[in-house]
Fold this protein.
Amino acid sequence: MSKSEFSRLRRKMDDHSLTKTAYLAIKNDIMLNKIKPGECLSGCQLARRLNMSRTPVREALGILENEGFVEIRNGVGIFVKETTEKDIVDLVEVRTALECSALESSS
């Protein structure tokens, strides 16, 4: 994400916390493949790039770990999770179940 894009995002989110700003910026970069699967993330570098302290970045990375976007390996580093074939199969199964349930409840 360029500095101008980030500035625009930050202005748009004036009422949101720095953690949410960091979360959205990092997640956006992961989703757009600007940060690649398997890549090691540095909280210090992310904080510097986002022009904020490490605390909101660390909190954002914790949220992203809970959502399955990153993996925090204690003593090793923080890595963007790679999508496996099993992840895709699980996602399709959940989506199928949800769509079937939605169809059944609409009839």
The radius of gyration is 17 Å. The chain has a mean pLDDT of 87.
